[in-house]
Design goal:
By secondary structure, the chain is an alpha/beta fold. The chain is built from 17 helices and 15 strands. A seven-stranded parallel beta sheet has the order 3-4-2-5-6-1-7, with helices on both faces. The structure holds adenosine monophosphate. Adenosine monophosphate binds next to helix 3.
């Protein structure tokens, strides 16, 4: 199918062609004709599916007949309202609206909190047809009577599930009460809880349901992997993996703002270009950080869930969950930053003993048993495999595995220094060995090696030569990890 087959006006088609899109994505193929007909939509689509263009293109198409080049503000009432949960998402939607409306005399603006209201007030006074807003700041403008929503024909609620998580539903209800009853409404959400369905019932009239991926499911182009690791070793493991992945950019998720800055500083101290993005940073800092990441100046972006919401970064091959999210649905949101628009992606999670319950919830939700791999030298807490995944210690397995080599020295949590020449720190069997301060042996090949896995399963540095362990589901070639890293995705 081509964009030309969807009934879009030439001005919109031209902007889409200039954006480089040749074919509409599945959500666009489904949503565009329905929205053009004026129907309400309940859209189940994750970020990365092209949903923004899916609602923006038909929205522009429907507003186009009302567009005017008149300079009178009165001729430019707010006709479309797009609500987004975060500033970043609002800004990205605004950017998309600007891109696709470049050949139409429609005005759009973005209003969000954390910045001075005056510039937004000036902008709104000019007369604006399309307002993209976060709920709190929009209500501030309503209260100050600097915006009039009485002529809104189209409402879009983007990422409704996140609105719910962030406690915005009461604000949304207040906003709904300010809008004309006769309007077209579109609601998009990656997941549909009962609460979202209740909201949809209030907001939508005879909605058409469109869904591009199965509910609560994740993109099939993403490879998931868990590294069981003790919590105190996580940051060393991260630095270790990043060193062996010199080209790719990585988005790392942590739970708290504090952990976010700390981890970014830790990586910076170890010569890995990193920055953090979280709610305590000013809007300008967040925008600059995001730009630096998009331009490749920053290789690793450490983020909290809220700050990362809606980040649209092209071709991001890796998302690392430094800590697992507290709600399983956030796992879907987080890893939605990779494997976008049909590209390949990798979702890597560091899981310590305490997080096993969260992992089980995630596996239940995504209906996947995620492969587990222990990276040699970065073992989990001894009780990690207690329930169901016990590793055998001592003796030889009946499979006649090769004897395990000496395990790498387990790193201490602060024991990563700047990379450079690997230190010649130990000799083994007369052969000179080059071992990094974090225990990584630079001479060890990355090929699949059962020995390497066995070394990891030897659990600790006291693993005795000759000890083997039985196969378990986390036993996968380490090359799967390291071989994958650094390789550009198609
Ligand atoms: P979204 O799901 O709206 O966040 O979009 C994800 C990414 O897909 C964005 O970078 C869009 O620019 C891109 N995109 C949207 N529609 C298309 C299309 N038809 N062809 C190729 N890329 C697209």
């Amino acid at each position: 199918m081509k964009f030309a087959d969807l009934g879009l006006i030439p001005e919109v088609q031209r902007a889409v062609a200039e954006a480089g899109y040749t074919e509409p994505t599945p959500i666009q193929q489904q949503a565009i004709p329905i929205i053009l007909q004026g129907n309400d939509v309940m859209g189940g689509a994750q970020t990365g599916t092209g949903k923004t263009a899916g609602f923006t293109l038909p929205l522009l198409n429907r507003l186009a007949p009302l567009a005017t080049s008149s300079t009178s503000p009165a001729r430019h009432p707010v006709r479309a309202l797009i609500l987004a949960p975060t500033r970043e998402l609002a800004m990205q939607v605004h950017e998309a609206v600007q891109t696709y409306s470049k050949y139409l005399p429609l005005r759009a603006t973005c209003i969000y909190g954390g910045v001075d209201m005056n510039a937004q007030i000036q902008e709104l006074r000019r007369g604006i047809e399309i307002v993209i807003a976060t709920p709190g700041r929009l209500l501030d403008h309503v209260q100050q009577k600097t915006i009039n929503l009485g002529q809104v024909d189209m409402l879009v609620l983007d990422e409704a599930d996140r609105m719910l998580d962030m406690g915005f539903i009461p604000d949304i209800r207040r906003i709904l009460a300010l809008l004309p009853a006769k309007r077209q409404s579109l609601l998009f959400s990656a997941t549909f809880s009962d609460e979202i369905k209740k909201l949809a019932d209030q907001m939508l009239k005879n909605p058409q349901l469109i869904e591009v991926a199965r509910r609560n499911m994740v993109s099939e182009t993403i490879t998931h992997r868990v590294h069981p690791v003790a919590s105190g070793l996580k940051r060393n493991l991260l630095a270790h993996l990043l060193r062996h992945q010199p080209d790719d950019q990585v988005l790392v998720f942590v739970d708290t703002k504090f952990a976010c800055s700390r981890l970014a500083n830790f990586l910076e101290r170890h010569a890995i270009a990193a920055d953090s993005i979280h709610g305590d940073k000013s809007q300008q800092q967040r925008t600059e950080t995001l730009e630096a990441f998009k331009s490749g100046k920053v290789r690793v972006l450490v983020a909290t869930d809220v700050a990362a919401r809606g980040l649209d970064i092209d071709d991001l091959p890796y998302v690392i969950n430094f800590e697992l999210p507290h709600t399983a649905e956030d796992y879907i949101h987080r890893i939605g930053r990779t494997g976008r628009a049909g590209r390949l992606g990798n979702a890597v999670s560091f899981v310590c003993s305490e997080e096993k319950g969260r992992l089980a919830e995630i596996e239940k939700l995504v209906k996947l048993q995620i492969p587990q791999e222990v990276v040699p030298g970065y073992d989990p807490e001894p009780d990690f495999f207690d329930a169901g995944h016990k590793r055998k210690r001592g003796g030889r397995s009946s499979g006649g595995d090769a004897p395990a080599p000496q395990a790498p020295r387990p790193p201490k949590s602060d024991d990563i220094r700047r990379p450079g020449r690997p230190q010649e720190s130990r000799r083994s069997g007369g052969r000179k060995s080059t071992v990094a301060p974090d225990g990584f042996d630079f001479n060890r090949p990355y090929e699949p090696s059962s020995a390497a896995i066995l070394a990891s399963e030897g659990a600790d540095a006291s693993a005795k030569a000759g000890e083997t362990s039985s196969p378990s589901r986390h036993k996968r070639p380490i090359a799967f990890l390291l071989g994958g890293l650094g390789r550009k995705q198609a």
